[in-house]
Structures are given as C-alpha cells and as structure tokens.
Specification:
Blueprint (H helix, E strand, L loop, with lengths): L5 E6 L7 H15 L5 E5 L5 H9 L5 E7 L1 H14 L5 E6 L5 H6 L4 H7 L3 E10 L6 E5 L2 E5 H12 L3 H14 L3 E5 L4 E10 L3 E2 L3 E2 L11 E7 L3 H13 L7 E2 L1 E6 L3 E5 L2 E5 L4 E13 L2
Parallel strand pairs: 1-2, 1-3, 3-4, 4-17
Antiparallel strand pairs: 5-6, 5-17, 7-9, 7-15, 8-9, 8-14, 9-12, 10-11, 12-13, 14-17, 15-16
Helix pairs in contact: 2-3, 6-7
Length: 293
C-alpha cells in the first residue's frame, strides 16, 4: 500500500521561472506512471497562499504535497502542512528556484521516480518560536533559520537571478549595505554578530559549505556564528565557505535569545521582522516531516 492516497501539486502560475511548465510536466508524467493516484493542481493566487493551500490539503487523508518552487515556496508548504497537524502528510519539492538548497542537499533520486517507488523517509525540521506565554507563535523551517549576513546573501542570490556575474553583483551589494546586529543570550550575555545561522543542511546558496557532517535527520542543527569583525575578514569567511568549507561546527537541539532592536530574520529565505525585545527560541523537531525524493 502506498503511503499517500492523492497528490496535490502547489505552484505559482505567475512565476517568472520554470514553475508553471515544470508543474504541468510533472502532472503529465504522474498521469502516465501512477494513473491510479488522483493528482490535483493547486495554483497560488497571492503571497502566502501556498501555506493556506497546504494546510487545507493536509487536513484530511494521506496527501502527498508537492511544492514546485524554490526553498521559500517549499517553506510555506511545509509550514502549512505542520499547522494542519496530520502526521500522515508527506511533503516534497520539485526544484524551480535559483539556489534550491533543500532539494540539492537531500535529493536521492528524481522526484517522479521517488513517487513511483513510494519510499518515505522522515527528516528533522527547525521550529522557531517567537514571543512568550499566550503571545508565542511558531513557524517551521526545512533548511535554515538565520540572522545577518549569511541568509541575506542567500536571498540576494535568489533575487539577483542566475548567472555568475549577477550573483557576484548581489554579494557585493550585500556586503556594502550590511550592518551587524545585537542580541541577548539566554544567560544574559549581550553579543554582537555579523551572522547567526541555525542550519539543518550542510550547504546553502549553491556554493557555501557550512559544515562537514550536518544531516537533516540527525536530531540536531549546526550553529554557525560570525561575531562582528571587519568586512574584509567577513569576505574571507565567505570565500572559505565557497571553496573549502567552514569545517566542523558546533551543534545544538535548542538555542534561545532576545532581540535588542527590530531584527530581520530568515526562514529558508522567507523574511520575518522581529520587534525589539522579542524572546526567540530555535528547537529541533526530530523526524517531524515525512518526505520523499
């Protein structure tokens, strides 16, 4: 028996990339290869719609939700599926973005082959909790949660478009306008960082190797910290990540801090702005997501 009873393909029909064409190609291939499984096309209509579509589709049964998107679109689908609370939901992504960090880091076979094969595995998620008490709310990330330089570079690479010259220009712009940030750790220590990244994958932004042995199913996340320093030193770190990697990194299951000022934060490329004095906690959600591919 298959682990899913239907397939829902979520995509942005107005995407300037390949998402609409890839979604249609996938539908046609699935109709030929798994004719007994219903396939529903679920085009988004507005920003954030993928999250709502995923939550609604995951409310009942054993759906396979396929996001034809980049990392940000898949983030919405995963977060929506987790909000539905249905442990039998399976999520997968067909890469249609620029970086496609999650798909590149976790791919074991082509997505159509994985669907036909039907083998499901479970991976960890990162759970971000913002606020405290009755005001607390959580969101999930499949690949990383970050503040500061590293995730901003990743987003600029997405916006800058494909092609090495455009990507280099995006990185240069990021370095030119970047400013450090300050947070208060759980023990009361105040720290100033250029980048703070919680990673569930070993590589991001296509080129940067964050750690040597990070895996999305090991029950921990890597904590990559860059204390504030001169920009030329930061550039050296970025070049090392892109060439030989950053080497072994500390890991954790929990990390807590409080913002000192309004602070932008990224979940898989999706931007959230935290207000000043917001308690923040990052936890690993072990084997929280069923996936294939």
């Amino acid at each position: 028996m298959r682990h899913f009873d239907r397939i829902v393909v979520i995509f942005n029909p107005k995407s300037t990339g390949d998402a609409p064409a890839l979604a249609e190609q996938l539908r046609a291939e699935l109709a030929a290869r798994v004719p007994g499984i219903p396939v529903t096309m679920a085009p988004t209509e507005r920003a954030g719609d993928a999250r709502d579509l995923a939550r609604a589709a995951a409310a009942t049964g054993r759906p396979l939700l396929i996001s034809v998107s980049g990392d940000g679109g898949f983030n919405e689908v995963v977060d929506g599926a987790m909000a539905a609370g249905n442990d039998e939901t399976i999520c997968a992504v067909m890469a249609a973005g620029n970086a496609n960090d999650h798909r590149r880091s976790t791919r074991e076979q082509s997505l159509p082959d994985a669907i036909v094969d039907g083998t499901v595995r479970r991976i960890d998620l990162l759970r971000l909790t913002m606020g405290s008490g009755s005001n607390a709310h959580s969101q999930y990330a499949h690949s990383y949660i970050g503040i500061g330089l590293t995730p901003i570079v990743a987003i600029d690479l997405e916006k800058g478009g494909k092609g090495s010259l455009k990507e280099i220009a995006s990185v240069v712009r990021t370095f030119a306008r970047f400013r450090p940030f300050t947070i208060r750790l759980a023990d009361g220590t105040v720290r100033r960082f250029d980048s703070l990244l919680f990673a569930n994958i070993a590589q991001m932004a296509k080129y940067a190797t964050l750690s040597e042995d990070g895996r999305p199913d090991d029950g921990r996340f890597e904590v990559i910290t860059l204390p504030h320093t001169a920009k030329w030193r930061l550039l050296g770190v970025a070049l090392r990540a892109a060439t030989r990697g950053l080497g072994p990194q500390p890991t954790a299951e929990h990390y807590a801090f409080t913002t000192m000022k309004p602070t932008p934060l990224q979940l898989d490329g999706e931007l959230v702005t935290l207000e000043a004095n917001t308690p923040v906690r990052v936890d690993i959600a072990p084997h929280a997501l069923a996936t294939l591919g």
